[in-house]
## 1
Amino acid sequence: MSNESNNCHAPLFVVGKPSVLNRERFLERVAGILDSVCHTNDGPLVQELEAFASHKFEVEHCVAVANATLGLELLMQALDLPPNSKVIVPSFTFVASVHAIVRCNLQPVFCDIDKRGLIDCDKVEQLIDSNTSAILAVNLFGFSCDITQLTAIADKHKLKLMFDSAHGVGVKHSGSPLGANGIAEVFSLHATKIVSGFEGGLITSMSDELAKKLRLARNFGFAGYDRVISVGTNAKLSEIHAAMALSNFEHLDDAISHNQSLFAAYQNKLRSASHLLTPNENESSNYQYVGLRCPAETRDRVLSHLIKNRVFARRYFYPGVHAMKPYSNIRYNLPVTERLSAEILCLPTGPSVKVEDVEFISDIVNSCSA
Ligand code: T4K
């Protein structure tokens, strides 16, 4: 990154550019951390972040962890899913959703998606067999899955339902914030996310028992000095990460409304605006990703043209996890996944992009389809 930013080819716009929404407040908090004796291990800022997020997500428990990938792993371990049992997951996701399953000694079973990239509930049911223990649905791109139908399927087949809500901070489904669905949801506070903690994750749940297990597991299983009562790891969030996350979280509403204005500008300026992935009527998105479907035969040409013009768009999520080396030994029939991963292009958004900039970016895309 540093080499690039020092030359004339430095990117003008980047998908995933980190946001610092209140530098002064962050630096104030950092000064407080340096003056204190508490730098990590469930410190006051981690507790403040958890309380703040629980309130925002309208959920009983929020457990802060080092990142969402570890959050998913801790969650699946805490659920005591039978070893080698199957977890249904979309392939159209960031690879971490699937790696977490495998690292918990479980088998991912890839499910196809709908046109917006969300798990196809009808296909989920067809994949369930006697060795299926759970569904890991992904609330992708600031959208939400069909939570009602997934809950009904999970209840009917007695499966654990979990949500990878890494992209879901601030998203609402039927008027309620994401956070309290299934047995738990996992959010990411990675630097590229709408609320950045540099790194970080939040596991939310309505279950007292699960939250207790997760708190133990993120801190080596310690229940007190010298008293370890379960197997655990180090998945703690430090105070400095919590300071960053809180200072950004306090400005989430502004960040969402800015993203929404950018999305509206893209709708206005792109000639292919009808191919933007768009929130449903029952969703209130955080507009964290602007996904555009380009014809597969031109998508990579559009991407090269954008990069040549210093606009770093991304092919999230190409080629689909099922096609990546660790998973490609099994053949899957995932036609919608194959198609969307060949067509998708995510365009820059977030605080570093101004509404006026959207015209420049859209013109580049438009010129490729002229
Ligand atoms: N589930 C889903 C559905 C996810 O999308 C993710 C993460 C997870 C689970 C796991 O969450 P965490 O364990 O990370 O909390 C990036 C992020 O690293 C990853 O967190 C994110 N999803 C994924 C969608 O995007 P890459 O491999 O594309 O990262 P990278 O380094 O290319 O960063 C993206 C862009 O951001 C680059 O173009 C440059 C820019 N950037 C990035 C960083 C870190 C900067 O300008 N500055 C920076 O400091 O995965």
Note: The two ends are 32 Å apart (CA to CA).
## 2
Amino acid sequence: MLRTINHAPSLAGKRVLVRCDLNVPIRDGLITDQGRIAASLETIRYLIAQDAKVIIMSHLGRPEGVDEKYSLEPVAVTMSELLDQPVAFATDTIGAEALGVSKVLENGGVAMIENLRFSEAETSKDDAERLGFATKLAKLADNFVSDGFGVVHRKQASVSEIATLLPSYAGFLVQREVEVSQQLTDSPEKPFMVVLGGSKVSDKLGVIENLLPKIDRLAIGGGMVYTFLKAMGHDVASSLLETDQLENVKGYIASAKQLGVELILPTDVVVAQRFAADTEFEVAAVDSIAKTKFGESGIGLDIGPDSARAFASAVSSSKTVFWNGPMGVFEYANFSAGTKAIAQALTEVSGLSVVGGGDSAAAVRQLGFQDHQFSHISTGGGASLEYLEGKKLPGLEALND
Ligand code: ADP
Ligand code: MG
């Protein structure tokens, strides 16, 4: 059983360190999407209302050491505006400033410490280094609340080690994600379908093997599908391809067959001349990707209309659907039809429909869908995939009784 904050003993006057996922996109010092900050407010407001002293921590991007470009300070400013109260900012994480701020906070007050990844110990592969960093973080607070679902599958100091050092609870975001993931894994209503796409090809190929025994249907689109098409003997021209995964993919195709999982691959794709919004394009059957007028330089950037129809009908006739990864380069209108068709079909599912992954979530919103049309839009693509695979997530282990 997950320990959640509403079951914590009184937090009034207690210093509570909250791990959020405030990894927002920043361009020229400006936050271009506040989504993750807004999503974190529920837990933070709850803690303020409990009269706790709230100390927020997060990572931002992948800095190597201290790098002003990745400072959380603009995030603290936005957080303060949204909360309509001051958010004290410490320019370090475990230094004098952070410690000082944590000591002078008043009940109901909020502070934020600097980007955790300015310290290499946060993500170190060395257990002792991570534990050392977490021990110093723990000095800032009396309790720990884990609310960054996007990172709970990571063995990182502020995610896993810290939870073993302080009385720890799941925040509302993590609680909701775990509830939905449990629904998906415990007794999914059948047929259970997983749709995978996107561009993090090797990350996502790896999960297929573990998912196959749990599902009835698997549809593949996006950038990862070209490794499948190649494995089946097709020439994929200049499409995204992970050559070193070809043998693995052949293995997945064989196990899908053996396990009786219906593997749904596109029969046609949209081939583009270049990777650009205004480029020329042509629909081609999967055995003719290299035979368009762009020849070997053609790039598959979306599933084709026949495939979109077939994928959509499999989705809408399933009872449980988990979708992670866009079917094409949805950021460009010419290559967004496949993703839109899947999103539409998901809204027609009569059972549980879950969208996972940062870009997939952005895609459904950008394509005009509303959050309430899906059972759940997850904030952590990688974390929910690992949960589905049946892996133990380091950040959740210490939160379970
Ligand atoms: P998520 O964040 O939902 O997990 P990913 O990060 O794996 O998804 O992938 C999202 C990206 O994949 C999008 O930016 C999209 O443009 C890109 N993408 C989708 N299809 C293709 C393709 N055929 N070729 C290259 N990139 C693609
Ligand atoms: Mg992504």
Note: The first strand starts at residue 15 and ends at 19.
